Structures are given as structure tokens and as C-alpha cells.
What does this fold into?
Amino acid sequence: MSLEPETENTIREDVPDRPRGYVVGSAPDSIEREIGHDDFDPVGTLVLIFGYFLILVVMWVFMYFVEFLGRGMTVIG
Amino acid sequence: MATFVDRYAEEASVIKANLVVSFVALGIGAFFGLVQALHRTNYFRFIDSVDYYTVLTGHGVLLALVFTIFFLLGLFTWAVVQSLERPMPDIRLTWAWFGLTTTGATFVAIAILAGFMPSIDMSADVLYTFYAPLQAHPLFYVGLAMFIVGTWLAGADWFLAYRNWRGDNPDERIPLQTFMVLTTMLMWYLSTLGVAVSTVFFLIPWSFGIVETVNPLLTRTLFWFFGHPVVYFWLMPAYLMWYTVLPKLAGGRLFSDPLARVVFVLFLLLSTPVGIHHQYLDPGIAEGFKFIAMTNTMFLLLPSLLTAFTVVASVEHGARQRGGEGYLKWLGALPWRDPAFTGMALAGAMFAAGGFSGMINAGMNINYLIHNTLWVPGHFHLTVGTAVALTMMAGSYWLVPQLTGKRLYSRPIGLLQVVLWFVGMVLMSNAMHRAGLVGIPRRTAEPQYQSFDFTAVIGTVGELRAQIAIGGTLLFLSVVLFLFNILLSAFEEPIANPVDDRLPAPLSGASGSPLVLDDLRLWTGIAVVLVILAYTLPLAGIVGDAGFFGNVPGVPVWVSANAEAIVETLTEVIA
It folds into this structure.
């Protein structure tokens, strides 16, 4: 099943049995352009995931200082 | 265009029944959460500290087992029916497993709640993990066993539906949502063996007095054999919605069907042979076995990171189709007015934060810093408490109208509700993590010691307590708003299009994914081998040390009823 054409979406707004206002799940109604598999470059995802790893590294370094250098020796066994 | 209820009215009734049980448990469990947050922080106490453990057990069992799993039962039935595009094979079987799980869950709830009434000689203040030698009333274990068997029947029902579909479609790929349901259930069958053996062979006979003693390390290890995979049993319904519904809610399409299948196969393989990572501090299990569990756990980060990529890319696809541009500006093009989208997106963001603390928990050496502290509840309120719970509530705003044919009572209230949950959880979970680092313990009504004060590195313990109390209150308010919104939706007039329920096809479809991914027998076989490798020697060691039934008598937790007898037994056990 592929996305339905936008023309139909316009008609759907006039369906009497559709609640007024914003309908939950109706984001596809405001699609401006269809982007296929080969045209889609998820560069924004790359930025977010890179940010995630950056936080991870900073927290790892922070943990090393606070939890290991900041405390006495832990003796196990 | 008709929605789900118009096509599958009988199935919609069973799914609604499951959601009703789920939401009732959510209401009671959330109230208990509020009581705990205010009691522990000493802001408002109206129960005795002894009763705190009844509240804590109720909170854990009703939310972590009843709310989540009944929602799963409903969602998975919906997913199987709508992705196979056919009704359930025999609706009587579907009602039968609903009846069995509900009866089991009711028994468990009665056993726990009876703890509030000293006049009734029944209690189950054993907390969510029911570690022996703490002993609950037999009704607790019997109810638990019935509930588990009920979920097995539900899985059988879905497999039966799949088999019938396969008979008519011998050459087609398993539809993605059904694939997710089946792999999750295979994981569930494998992992619940642990808790089934623990309750049926050891805890039930022991609670009835048929056997005198128990081997606590054995039942504990069998619990965690099930206790870690169960977190994925909570999470997989959320994943199912993130993969198959969230992209649509964002106005996009799933980036890759094959990647989604790989993730679910990895969870089937890796969920179970990791349970010992909950027992890093348990004596009686050799360090080497714990190390193996840690290694397996770190591999589990892989499917979660794959999910982070696939789901975020699918959401980004929606934003770009809606006109989003730039490296980060596209985030503004997402449909933030939609409570179903916003709730799931915020839940995903919190899951990313839960990943940070999860990595700390999983590391054997770092785990020692936070083991049994408030850090741990801080962690799982991000994962099951938000990634799962908030996704389920947000998903309900989209799912429930399909089951009732009625519009959501209020979209703005829904939006306020999901944001309120996020804010409440930021406050509460952040404070819990920090309190854990300071060493404040979990699972206690009185986190204060005489002649000792916890000191926070940044801020004060008083400020942490305030955050927990305020956060807990906001979370409770959020649940109240959710339940009222869903309840009032039931009084709306049925209409043809209460919600936009179309699901677009993935950008990269199933046809491009390797056929071997659909070979469920192969993956089950490998999963079994991994479990045998990870668990045979530790279990043999535990049984070799103290036998199957051990030498520890029970400590019944009828605390208020016979306190003196408890103290006597406790002294015996400790001696």
C-alpha cells in the first residue's frame, strides 16, 4: 500500500463524519512533496545520533573523574 | 472509509476488554506511585511505613505486569488481525485467554491488596521480584501462573492465525507487524520457562507447605531468567508502534522493513541469556558467568542503536515530506500538535536517556556504584516508565478511536497529558539518578539512617526529594488526564472516520530483505542454544551448592497480622 494521492486528502476534509479540528494521525494530509527511497538522505538523523554519541563520550569522561578519581580505592575480593 | 471496529467488530471487543483491564491497573498503580513518592520524601504520609511495601508491590506488579502486558495483548491482537487482514481463527479462544489472564491478574491483585486489611489473613508484600524467602499467600503465585499460561494461549492464538494465513499465502513474506508479534512471542515462550518452573515447581508447593524449604538463589536466578526478557516484552509493543505507526504519525514512511526485522530477531536471540546481569552482587554465581552475561548485554545495545537510526530516519522522512529543511530545523516541521506523535517522540527521546543509565547498570564494575540504589528505579522509569508507558498512552489516542469508532474527547488535553508526563519524569527520574549516586537506597519507606546524612555533590538532598515529590505528582496528574480523556471518549457519537488509520508502506520493503530473516525455526534454535550456553553451568552450580529445594524456610509477609512470628522466623533465617 503506498501513500494515497493528495487530491483525495483534500476531499477527505469535507467528509461529514470526520471530526472537526486536527484529527489524530492526519499528518500525511499536509505532505508537500513525496520523497522516495533514493531521494531521501537522512542527514538530520546523522546529526542527532552524532549528538547522542558526543553526550555519551562526555559523560563517560565525566564518570571517570567523578566516580573513580573522586573516590578512594574500591577493594573487591 | 471504515475503521477497524467496522471490519472486525468481535476482535475490537476483545482488544477493548484488554485495554480496560490495562487502564484500570494503570489508574491504581499510578495512585500507588503517588503515595510512594510523597511518603519516601516525607512530604505527605498517610499510611504506615509497614504498608509502604504493600503499596510498592502493588505499584510494581500492577504497572509493570498488568498495565503493560494487557496493553500488549490488545495491541498484538490488533496488529495480527490488521496486518494479516483476517479475523482471529476462533474468537472463543481469544476470549478464553483473556479470561484466564484476567482471572490470574485478579488473583494476584487480591493477594496484594488484602495486605491493607489486617482482618484478612492474606498478604503478598513480596515486591515485584517476589524473592524467596519472602513468602506470599499461595493465591499470588497461583494467579501469576494462570496469568503466564494465559499469555501462552494468546501467543498460540496469534500463531494459529498466522498458520491459517500462511495456508492461503504460501509464498508471501510475513507481514511486518505479525513478524514482530511472532518473534516477540517466541522470546516470551523461551523466557517464561524460568518463571514458570520457579513458581510451579518451587514457590507454589512451598507456599502451600508441601515442601518446607526453598533455594533462594535458584528461584532468584530463575526469576531473572524471565526478569530481563520481560523488559523487552514491555518494550516490543512500543517498538512495534515506533516502527509501524510513528513514521505515519510523522507524515513519513518506515525507512527500512529489513532493518526492523533484524532488530526483532536480535531481541529474540539476545534477550534471555543476559538475566544474570541483574545479579552482579549475588554471591553464589561465579564472576565468569556474570562476565558472560555482561558481554551478551552489551550486544543488546546493537538492536537499540539500530532502532534509534531507523525510527529517527523514518520520522525525519515525515518532516522532509512536510517541507522540513536543514540539519535540525526539520524537527520544527513535525506534527507536534498531534498527541500520539508528540507522546511517542518524547518517549523515544527519554529512551535514549535511559540508554545512558542502562549502560552504567550493565557494566559489572560500574554497576557496584549504583546497585540497589535509587538510581535503578530512576533508570527503569525512563525505560518502562516512559519509553513504554508513554508510548502506550500516546498510541492509545490513535488506537482507541479505531476500536470504538468514536473520536478522541480532547486532542489538546491529550497533548497536555503527554507533555506533563515528560516534564514530571524529567524531574523525578533525574532526581532519582542523582540520589542513587549519593547512595540513597531503593525499596525502602525510610531512606534515612540514624547518625548519617547523605550529601549531594551538586544541590542538596532536600532539593532531590522535592523534585521526586513534584515529579511524582505531575505523573499522577498526567495519568488522571489520560484516563478521563479515554473515558469521556467512550461517550462520543460513533462516526466513520474518527482517526486517520492508514499505514503507508515502508520506503524499503520486505521484498528486499533476506528470506532467512523469516525463518523463525532457525532463530528459535539459536536462541535456545545461547540460553543453554549462558545458563547451564550457573544453574548447575546453584543446584550443586544447595540442592533444588535448598534449606531456607519461608518468611511469610503477613506483616501486620503476625509480626512476632515474622521476627522469630527472620531471626532463624539470619542465624
